Amino acid sequence: xxxxxxxxxxxxxxxxxxxxxxxxxxxxxxxxxxxxxxxxxxxxxxxxxxxxxxxxxxxxxxxxxxxxxxxxxxxxxxxxxxxxxxxxxxxxxxxxxxxxxxxxxxxxxxxxxxxxxxxxxxxxxxxxxxxxxxxxxxxxxxxxxxxxxxxxxxxxxxxxxxxxxxxxxxxxxxxxxxxxxxxxxxxxxxxxxxxxxxxxxxxxxxxxxxxxxxxxxxxxxxxxxxxxxxxxxxxxxxxxxxxxxxxxxxxxxxxxxxxxxxxxxxxxxxxxxxxxxxxxxxxxxxxxxxxxxxxxxxxxxxxxxxxxxxxxxxxxxxxxxxxxxxxxxxxxxxxxxxxxxxxxxxxxxxxxxxxxxxxxxxxxxxxxxxxxxxxxxxxxxxxxxxxxxxxxxx
Length: 394
Prior knowledge:
This protein is of the alpha+beta class and about 400 residues long. It has 2 domains: about 20-155 and about 310-394, no CATH class; about 170-270, no CATH class. The protein is about 60% helix and about 20% strand. The chain contains 13 helices and 6 strands. A 6-stranded antiparallel β-sheet has the order 1-2-3-4-5-6. Helix 2 runs antiparallel to helix 3 (about 65-100), helix 11 packs parallel to helix 13 and helix 12 runs antiparallel to helix 13. It is elongated and about 95 Å long. The termini are far apart.
């Protein structure tokens, strides 16, 4: 006589394995498909407006290869995918929590003793995970992909492999403490370093103005200069040094074939570094800030400090939009869910980025600190979400 044993179908669900309650698993599972739909929709809109039209113009006007255009398109895609994450989460929360509300599932859950605070918890969990994913994505993938897209486009249009981002007109101002006539120390300009071109190996067409003493005391002109990493000096070739006396006339002229001088490495670091924040992660921006810290370019320094704070604050908009979207979704009545949700999403997203632009403007006028300018729109969104949540729970 054959003996039969009951069989159990095995399926791996990480939420079950993590011990997530069934209500949370249900809501999170419902959020996934609208979230993926939102990622696809918003990233498609962004990449079409931000990249596709420009690439089509370059194909027709500049003769860019369609295959290279396709490569650049995919390299730019991670940036717009990253931007779409908070928008997609907002749309998903509005749609799913709106459906739960219009189908009276929210009423059923609340009659069973489930509070509104407990209902929005799955959205907050998804928002927290999305925040981490967006931050890691922006640090590890987006800057490298944007940098490679820039290199690929420049190589295609210029017919060469660009070794650096700032190939032409490299300008660096070095500031330092100088002793004044009364014996005090004051920060002042020490040197101006200018190069016409950088080919990836050496500077070409060098001019160095030395103000380290009182007034302009030395001018160096050189055809080329290469950084000597072993000796930490610049190797200048085929140049002239003009020594200037305090009255402003030439005191001495020195011509040389080879000359080593101890000047800062910073001009080389500037020439080899992208200055576009979307092509740098936080560590690279901080390194660049250390390089240009004494350059006197306060506008560039302030911009980069703001971008560092924004790279941290922007991912938290996922958590903020998860809170607002779920709370508004619970409050919505029976209506055209997808169209209404998409419309509300666009209004909230435009409002958020408008607030971000306003805060940047206040920062440029020195009204806000970089921390406040970066975090204020997100904090306002969190405050609005908490107030809505408290009101809805009454």
